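User: Structure tokens for this complex, please. No commentary.
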Amino acid sequence: MKKKILFSMCLVSLAAVLLTALFTSLVLYNRTYDELKDSIKTEAEYISVSMGDDPIPYLQTAAKVTPSRVTWIAADGAVLFDSQSAPGEMENHSGRKEFQAAVETGRGEDTRLSSTLQEQSYYYALRLSDGSVLRVSEDTESLYRTLLRSLPVVALLMAVVLGVCVLLSFWQTKRIVSPINNMDLEHPEEAVAYSELSPLLTRIERQQKDIKGHVESLRRMQAEFSAITNHMSEGFLILNGQSAVLSHNRSADWILGLDEDAQGKNIICYCRNKDFLAVVGKALKGEQAETVLKRAGRSYLVTANPVLEREEVRGAVVLLVDGTEKLSREKLRREFSANVSHELKTPLTSISGYAEIMAGGIVKAGDVPELAGRIYKEAQRLIAMVEDIIRLSQLDEGNPGPQTEEVELLSLAEEVCARLRERAAEREVELTVSGNKAAVLGVRQVLDEMITNLVDNAVKYNKTGGSVQVIVEKTTEGGAKLIVADTGIGIPEKDRNRVFERFYRVDKSHSKETGGTGLGLSIVRHGAQLHGAELQMESKLGIGTKVRITFPNAHCQGHP
Amino acid sequence: MRSKFDEQLQQLHVELITMGGLCEQAIAAAAKALLDGDEALAREVFHTDGEIDRKEREIESLCMRLLLQQQPVARDLRVISSALKMVSDMERIGDQASDIAEITRCIQEGRTWGHISIGDMARATMRMVTDSIDSFVKEDLKLARAVMAADDTVDALFVTVKNELIALISEDSENGEYCLDLLMIAKYFERIGDHATNIAEWVEYSITGKHKGEPL
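Assistant:
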């Protein structure tokens, strides 16, 4: 723009300077030339009038005062006098144009250029009364010479004009462009600086509307996307081909410790776990991969999927799902099935063994009752276990069996203890029930089993001469509290959380010494859950265990 | 030109973190092998150590390329030269982890160390290694200084372990071999702590331009 304006301005002004110079010199030249002609004419007239009878001396005098050349030519063309040359040396002038014209019409003129074009001569001839001709002439600079001589001046002028042009064009460009630059393109219709620009501005306006629409819809989509991802409990990450973070949601921030300037950083800056990085690397090679990431005490299932664009991997999408509960449940289930088959197999193996011996007929008749007794005992154990499993699965399905009713815990506890007193006496364990009457809303049969299992355990894992205390109390909230405390062997700390699991035994040898199915405390926990009760356990190794079940207020409670 | 350089610096950063992650892995596996008596984990440490050595050579040649081809100045130069120093420390950590695993394999089974603080020591050094790498990743000066301070804790733990072992030997001289093995392991942990401190010091240098409080 600037260059273009400068260029055209210079061109125009240079042409103007040149043309002006040319025309002024032409006009001026012509005027001076005309004046010269006039003065020569006057001079010739003047001399011709004053020549008198003896013209030669007069002409000599006149020639001295005038710069013009004065020539007197006879009627036949011979030169009679000349102010610059001797008349004898000069050729006959009859051939000259001005002479011929003067002879014919009385006056004649001619202009002749010198051979070098540098000078030109003007001749004016006047016929005198005697037929001779007086000629006055003057040499002047030719037009070419004049022009040539004015060239330096013109050049100087051009240089000055050029300089001015540059300055002017800068100023002018700025003046033209600044309104354009200052145009408010947000509202182009109001900012018309030049009417010539309005078609352009209309187009800009239309495009701007389009762009605004696109941006708006993109923003809406982005907002929807982040609203969805940010409210996901799963961590969500998008990585590019160099495993730099492109997008991350709040859960991912929380799980991996991403901060606000995580965008564009390599994911390795936040998680150096080998398996996690391997999964990301696999996804970036185009394979789907999964792993488990342990972080801050929780386990996350990591799923990484490649993002393909035209058969080419452009990045990866990583999903982190908190699988702590799921994984531990799965582990429990695996252990349960392993345990249940083992537990069921043990009595069956004994039964099968005894039966085999008996079938072989190698048993003395006297031993048969004893062996049959053993088979009976093992079968009873098996039945008890299967019954327990059935009950557990009933509780699992939330099927409590009989209807709920108001159950008085103290009398129930006494009932249970009366049943178990005999066994307690066998082990020399003192069994006492104390406390106040407290009623809960529940299933009598389930509550009975819960107390039976607790007291039975307390007796079973007791020391000789120990004691078991069953205490029933009302809580301040109107609920009931059942405490079973023993002075038994206690439970080691690492097993304390697991004793309520099915088949879990502190004593791993599955010894039959104490009997039991390993399901008792599991039933207690399920029963407590069914009644909305809170189960607590305190235990000191070698000193005793205290199990506390707190039932909520029976009247505030809805249907269990 | 510049963008290529930036890309290479970024690559150096990622490679260093990867190597740091390998070190963490090696020492964690060595500690677990020691505390749980897991033979398979001990073998894994040797494998990881090999990987660490490979990574060291890779990073070194990357640093050399950067130094020769890009002729970095000021902060970039500091980052690259401290990276060169850091990889040697990391490599030593890997070696010592594999030394620990080696000794662990020789210790007879069935030994328990409930009353010896070697577990605490393993955990403290692991924390230091993780923190020193974290301080590098996040350019966290505070964390780097915390690592330097934690070295004293590990040193103190070494003395504790040593005294416990002396007591164990004076109890029964049969324990001698076992105690010496444990002392070696404790010393290795203590050395790993020193290397973690070195890493933290180089992190400090690459951020502030001062190594141990003095301009280099």
